[in-house]
């Protein structure tokens, strides 16, 4: 009887397969798959991407920097972090710092005198402080944007030169640009601002010439006075800038 039972089982399986393979069942199965895929498509269409957050090229570096704290127990960052090379006395510290600043000034001089040697700028983002300084002459073509960029970067000698070129070339400057220029001239007294990179040099000059900071160094009838007199209707900000310069 066992062989007969196995034959019956096989016949039942064949009948079930025939039912499944009927055209009507295939149509129902395909329609179900189509409806399922359409439902999936609807779900994808309803998905909404989050709004993009604007990031600058240095945001990741700033985030990493925020997790690192300065080691107050170690030497100053300008010195070598080595017990055998770290200066101990104040004279050694000043000598080391002055030597480092002089080396930086020598590198800047070579960069400015030979700008053609520094053409491979692969920094991303580009560090404009490392670029050679642009020199302006009487034949240079400038715009108001050039003057605004120089004012924003606090380059006083170049700003004065470009402003004179703008006046000679008849370039009109808006009130906001003139106000920014006046504030820069009043703050710097038409002299090049000392960079923070040369801190020791500034301190040494103050030690060698004590009392010079208390003297009145305002340039009478300078470009700041001329610019203020040329303003047809000076604003309160213009008066505040010239008063601070005279103080």
Automatic annotation (TrEMBL):
Superkingdom of this protein's organism: Eukaryota
Main localization (coarse): mitochondrion
Family annotation (Pfam families): Rib_mS39_PPR
Locations listed in the record: Mitochondrion
Entry keyword set: Mitochondrion, Repeat, Transit peptide
InterPro entries noted in UniProt: PTCD3, Rib_mS39_PPR
GO cellular component: mitochondrion
UniProt source species: Hirondellea gigas
MF terms (GO), sorted A to Z: ribosomal small subunit binding; rRNA binding
Protein name (record): Protein PTCD3 homolog
Record-level GO BP terms: mitochondrial translation
